[in-house]
Amino acid sequence: MGSKRLDRRELLKSGAALAGGMTIGAVAPAMGQTQASEAGHGPASPPMIRGDEAKIIAYGDRSKHVTSVRIPHGGRPSPDNFGLTFHVASPLQDSVGVITPSSLHYFATTRGSFLPDIDPNTHSLMIHGLVDRPLTFTMADLKRLPSVTRLHFIECAGNRTSRRAKTVQESHGMTSNAEWTGVLLSTLLKECGLKGGASWFVAEGVEEVKGASSMPIAKAMDDCMIAYGMNGEAVRPQNGFPLRLMVPGFEGIFHTKWLRRIKVVDRYYMNYNDFGHLDRDPKVAALEYQIGPKSVITFPSGSQQLPGKGSYEISGLAWSGGGAIRKVEISTDGGKKWNNAEFKGTPQRMAHARFSYQWNWDGNEAELLSRCTDEVGQVQPTREQVAKYWNVPFNESYSPPGLDNTIQPWQVARDGRVTNGLA
Asked: Which of 146, 109, 111, 130 is nearest to 262 (CA)?
């Protein structure tokens, strides 16, 4: 047996020598390990990053070559007369995947208020009103309870198609998607016990201009979350540290930040946040809570440039307050023909879904559109369809009432420049 094993070993050695064309014992360098000075050709090794060692260790920096930033956004000048920025939009045009980094997550203020500086060791959440046992929960109390981790988007009512927007950040940057961790509100309400007649609840934050919103108790018992975690770390101050209310699928203003109090009540209460966000027309009011099915192409999108004809991956995001996205369609000819896109991963309920479609651009003018369908069968509409629903004349300056989830077109010129198709 020993001689056979030796013969086999010698045979393998001789075979390796013949196949490799080198002497036994010589080792070829791994790909990319040959120094340019040794090889005499090829790119030189890049310089090493000589940053602040303590800063690199304490909280990692991104590459200096990655320059995605948020921008001021909203219905009034920023900064305002008090030096405050109203809303800040996320750079969707640079996004990949479905999770928005915490540092690039959009945020909105309540009438431009300053960010509260809250000590989590002294912060608490009170639940009272129509409950059997009014309770106050400290942060330590909340973290002892069973937790959940879920992907959810948040979107501001100001996120809407606009002829003035030059980029997708300007038109749709007031939405972001993160992984949230916390305790279901239903868990806390069961601890307190709901009294008969409890049909609404009011959530209040700590900001200087008191933010409060009224929501149905059925939503609270369904999927609302008291979140203390965001993308694997504590919620950022701009997003409500140490606690924020997550109301999946509802307009962003209901996701109360810096949450400190929840009152269970038997009727709808008109609060500061609700004023101006509801309409007397019941059809409009019905559209003010839940975000409709919505999608937008992030590449290629406004102000981007295609270098020349050829194959490109059209990519974008789709989401709905009605549940998970079930289908996304892409048109490259202004809506004459639609093609099914593919999902990058499995769409989650009330979360962004990444879609893509491989497109061979022939160098001619094109108009790119996306539309989505959610799990309850709702289909994203065009602006013309929304105008027809409201029975009003349609023109280029038409702006849909309520939460705008209409299709955003991008126009591709012959030279590859991409512009807003509504302009």
From this structure: 130
